[in-house]
Amino acid sequence: MKRNYVKYTSGAILTGLILFTSCQSTREVQANYEVAQIEGTRICMDSTWDAHPDEKAAVLLKPYKEKIDKMMYEVIGVSEMTMDKGRPESLLSNLVAEVLRLSAERVLKHPADIGIMNMGGLRNILPQGDITVDAVFEILPFENSLCVLTMKGTEIKRLVEVIASLHGEGLSGAHLEITEDGKLLKATVQGKEIEVDAVCDGTDILIPGIMEHIERTGIHSGDSISVYPAPTISEPVKEMIVEYTKRLAQALHVIGLINIQFIVMDEQVYVIEVNPRSSRTVPYISKVTGIPIVDLATKVIIGETIRGMGYEPGLAPTADYIAIKMPVFSFEKLRGAEISLGPEMKSTGECLGIAKTFNEALYKAFLGAGIKLPKYKQMIMTVKDADKPEAVGVAKRFEALGYKIYATRSTAKYLQEHGVNALRINKISQESPNVMDLILGHKIDLVIDTPTQGNGDKNRDGFLIRRNAIETGVYCITAMDTANALAQSLETATNELTPIDIATVKNL
Q1: CA 384/CA 186 separation, integer angstroms
Q2: In contact, 292 and 306? CB cutoff 8 Å
Q3: Domains of the chain
């Protein structure tokens, strides 16, 4: 036992000495060595490395390479232009966001309302020409998953505020206006705005017609170009609108007139506002449908019913012509007023264009509002960054009509890069000749100016351009949808206009 104890004790001591020595020597080694110099070179991984490939590796990889090459170099589409990412938004980032939004249909059975793509996830440009599978992998190299969320309005508001603070991300289905310091000015869902006026007797409703606005949501209904009958919405959407109108009127215990504004997006219907009263579109819809909606509302208030007056409840039969309401403004008489359109109504009247075809009705409506173009076939374009991609299409339409297009620096640069022969013109604050010289020279037909700040600083170039255009008799447009509508009316303009006698209309 004693010997064994001694053995164990000796062994423990020896082990301890070894460990101590080992630790000590390690500390000494670490203490005695330090990095004196780091050297390195870059190696370009290009085709030169394929000059003498490893034969065994090449044989091993050949079947896999052939399979990958066949898949990756397959052409799956064509791009008319090079697309790159950039803030606050860009063609590439918005395209990917739109693809994600539409892809949500696999989960929701319909596209999502909004699609978002973070800029950091985009790692390459989309080149002009054929699009191959490998080009898509180069743009989106990560194995990310599509995430579909249901969010409250307050949560979406917070989300877009964060996007604004980041100075923009790829976005589809919504439109943001962001200041240079990352503050959110306005956020709107990009759907079609639909409007109805109806009579309710407490049980049944009568809708003379459904009107569709040309301008997207965000512009007051009174300032929008309105089309009857709604040209682009489907029959299921019409049925939803009729049903929602009936439910809302009954829930609010309406007996008389009701006006409702909807948003239609991806076959879904959303309510903007409900007005249990008459609206400014009542005379318009009465004239173009032949249904005396005010008379009917008066009678139901005193106890009559829609069926008792000989009308079938629901949506009335559609007229066989197109009627377009065009807003009329008096900005030239209101000195100093901001003319850009937004959620506050600014129009002082309206006129009608009625024809058998949409294009002729649209042209008549512009003529009725006093827009008689072309004159000199010269125009000015200065648009905010968010509108630049859409401005390209507008500019090309006017260029095809023979217009010479002047544009301020950033707009001109963008248009030129995308195939528009835009002539750069100096801003007001720069030396002559500048944009003001063109306007005051009375040689300009049209100004397209989309403001970044809405009703803001009256010393900004945009405000001065818009005011001076109006005061010199130049038609000024502040929304891209309106610009497209004007281009369409000019493309199909004709001196042979067809008269329509709405006095003979009787829609029973």
Answers
A1: 14
A2: no
A3: 69-188 (3.90.780.10), 191-320 (3.30.470.20), 372-491 (3.40.50.1380)
